[in-house]
Amino acid sequence: MSDLNVAVAEEEVTTPKAVVMNQIPAADAGVRGESPLHHVELESLAKQGPRQGGIRFKENKLLGHLTLRCNPNNAELMASAANVLGVELPQTKLTAVEAGDVSVRWIAPDEWLILVPGEKAFEMETRFRDEMNGHHSLVNSSGGSTVYELSGENVVEMLKKCTPVDLHPKEFPVGKVVSTVFAKSSAVIRRKGDTEFELVVRRSFADYIWLWIQDASREFGLVVDA
Amino acid sequence: MTQKNRLQSGGRIDRSKPLTFTYNGKKFKGFHGDTLASAMLANGIDIVSRSFKYSRPRGIVAAGAEEPNAVLQLGATEATQVPNVRATQQELFDGLVAGATNGWPNVDNDLMGYVGKVGGSMMPPGFYYKTFMYPQSLWHTYENMIRKAAGLGRSPLENDPDMYDKINQHCDVLVVGAGPAGLAAALTAARSGARVIIADEQAEFGGSLLSSKESLDGKAASAWVSDVVKELSGYEDVMLLPRSTVNGYHDHNFLTIHERRTDHIADKAPEGMVRQRLHRVRAKWVILATGAHERPLVYANNDVPGCMVANAVSTYINRYGVVPGNELVLMTTNDSGYQAALDWHDAGRKVAAIVDTRQNPQGDRVSAARQRGLNVITGSAVIEVSGSKRVTGVSIAPLSADGSRVNGSVTKMNADTVATSGGWSPVIHLSCHTGARPVWNEDVVGFLPGPTVQKQLTAGAINGSYSTSTALFEGLNAGLKALAELGMTAAEVSLPKAEEVKEGNPMTLFHIPHLKPTSKAPKQFVDYQTDVTAAGIEVACREGYESIEHVKRYTAMGFGTDQGKLGNINGMAIAAKALNQTIPETGTTIFRPNYTPVTFGAIAGRDCGELFDPKRYTAMHKWHVENGAKFEDVGQWKRPWYFPKAGESMQDALNRECLATRESVGILDASTLGKIDIQGKDAREFLGRVYTNAWAKLPVGKCRYGLMCGEDGMVFDDGVTSCLGENHFVMTTTSGGAARVYEWLELYHQTEWPEMEVYFNTVTDHWATMTISGPNSRKLLAELTDYDVSKENFGFMDWREMNVASVPARVFRISFTGELSFEINVQANYGLHVWEKLFEHGEKYNLTPYGTETMHILRAEKGFIIAGQDTDGSVHPYDLGMGWCVSPKKPFSFIGKRGMAREDCVRPDRKQLVGLKTVDPNVVLPEGAQGVFDPKAPIPMPMVGHITSSYWSACLGRSIAMGFVKGGLDKMGEKVYYPLADGRTVEAEICSPIFLDPKGERQNV
Questions:
Q1: Domains and CATH numbers, chain A
Q2: pLDDT by residue (tens digit) across B606-615?
């Protein structure tokens, strides 16, 4: 936990760096984190709800979400990022890579979304700050979004009611990622398997998207996992 | 009642599955496979509606989408009422309930008919325009009357119990229409591995093949159809959509398909099933194989029930086993029309005559008729029909060779059915949707699809290629062409061999002449649905309407729910003749989406009820709900508005919340404020360019208020931006303006100043923000943190990082209430925890939650503006008295600097924001009230500005208001008058908008 003095001290180095702050309470502080869907009580839905259905839903909550922006033509920065992540940043548009518990999604030519376990976010932020020399930004958005895992034999049919993106395997193979329209909101959609998708959704829209998915799943049967 | 017109055998109906339905309260029988229309005809129901203008009885004319008369009201219960259902497209199901949409007391005995007979002659074309235009204020009354008389059905009074949804589809090739051309195209594309969608409005695929007796490869054509359908069904990437009308063809090969999934099963969709689905298709290539509609001929009394188009007669006989009458007279201008008489004769009923307008018809079907010994009368026409509720006879007369006049004496003949064929009109509607202008083709005697900019191909009858063999051939070729364009290799497809039928040339004739001139002859209907007659079109032309678009609008031709599918071409031809022009010179009106009416349910899909629009929630929303908050919509956010306690009125709650905050401490969920993280070495300079004030010297650890203007110098957003590090800032925006500000920053960075090293990231949702405000807020905060929050260590407009309730937080000492305030920001997943801890400790300070309304009052007491409420895009900082927030001396310009220096922007008499105190302190001015300087000025009074914010201030014990007054900043102490809608005139004094603590002592403690 730094305080303002650390930030002031930054002025002394030649290239000032962004302010990094551990935003997670200490493990022994007894503070519970609440995902954007906490009010839905997915655990009890998982216990009481049906176990058979064409769609399975699971929230992958409280992860570390980091948005990196930097110039992909800056080889030094790209090398530093690869060093921190343990994997090269994907430079092919609309692709994602995974290495251990780190996954990186191409969002735009100069933007990537990195997901790590929640408790690792601060460490990774700090390493980025220490190792990236040059213009970039790394922003912690862990509280601003959550992850929905969707699977099941009817998942593509259900998602066709949610997004105008073409989900045919020829156009949307495993590993592809898009930031796109989802009902009247948006989501970062990644295909993890033939019938497995991951959505990164914004916190404030999480309930709307959950309601939409429930509704679109009605004809197939929805199984909630927790 | 028995099915008196039903044949003992034949057709595609299942006689082992009888169905019962109700029409106008009477029960009837039909069979599985019937349409409502075929079942009605089987039962001998002649009259299905009364006409729009003249209230004449009307019967079923056609067998498909082009039907103008059999437009019925469906529904067994109030909630399942569906208006405007074409009986020809509605499959029969057991228990179906239908009724005519108009006619009083009923269609069989319509009293309006007598009115119509009198009124009709007084209702020339353009009647509605001429009569109902003035006085304009009465239009609503007229409209009501017209609607009732028009018989357009009614909407249900109860909520629709069914579910409708929308689905997105993508394909290489979308084939529209599953007749021979469409099936051949789809088969070619599908066999070669393309992603194919084939849609057809009918329940079964096959199109024209379903209603003809022709053979393919020596077998029944239906056998080939089922083979193809079976093969198509086997491909993973092929989607077959029966009962699905491609209703709209939009730019970039985006098409909408209206699929009726359960309308053939029951009145209400079975549990769990979607009644109708709107497919939103993005197709790489589109093949239109939409076929053609047969054109009826226009002759006197051609609307008497029993007058039908020839092909519909064949369809009812061959597909449904129904002969819709006993004695047929067929009138035709071409060979294909003969088929109806052949089928009628083969079904064992009497063909009284075939009346061919051609002098010397020759062709296989003509010979077949003669071989059967049918009475073929050539060079003649049915010039008039007799009968009122059903055809009883016809008048036949010889025509001149060009068909323009009657050329001999009239013969009368008994008949109960008159079938006519004037040739075919290709179904070019979808091609028109994309803007293609139809092109007249003399050989086809019809309009063909015009040149297109879409990736669109056409095949079959839409091209005027009416024989099955050419349809198949063109379908195959369209499939091959699409594959080539897609870069795909075509697989081998061999076409079945169709029977070759030799045909003679058709005659170009639309309007059958009468002994009397058109204006004096009995009515010759062109458009049944809107009661447009040949005489009416001639009147329109005589009155000077030369453009076909004007003729259409003046007569209402093609304005019905059928969009004039049956009558439009006849109407154009009659207009062309009246204007002494060719048809190409006259041109045609075109069609717009939708091809056939779409239910509102399918258009709305699931975007209704709870899912109508996203509701955005903050991390503390659940607490607000549990604590009785009333909510207000701010953009899509649900923000607490106020927190009433039991028995409190809204004003009671606001008074309590305001006083508690000023006297002790209140708390506001401010999470919805837009937050943008800004990083990079040029971040500071960038801020200086987008804000009006200076940012060069803001030290790390400090916050500053900023105003943002457009290029025109007008304020569009405001907020506090804090310096986190030398190259790192966090900007806040208004709740509603977050997305716009973020886009604004990106726009200027990407287009104007790409050289600046700065990145923007939105972090609105990442931080939960709670503001504690009031004299006890410091004490409360101190209880939850180890950090020194004293005035000395944590001054006004500072921010500090500290733990609050064990959660790392950024705390900003900024104030929107004028009180000592701390804005606590924590990672949103921990927001609820911190909020609840604040309440645990806040009880002893009477910590009071407040919502947006109290926030508005508290800030108004301090004269703080709300961008979007006190600004409207037409006020610059100086108008707001906020010149202190503009720094014209910055080395680089800023957005809005030149705009606010324009001549008009520096006028001294601009409307300026001031405070307003009503002379009677108990009167709260309504927001939006317009002020005047002289309440006795004559109307229209010169208005000098409106009230933007107005509240009861419990803290001050009086009303307060802010508003614009012309030159108001120089008029302190002067009076403004507000004449209100209720007759009162409220007097108010211009004052500083800072009503409370003008020196800012309360926040600086």
A1: 38-224 (3.30.1360.120)
A2: 999 999 999 9
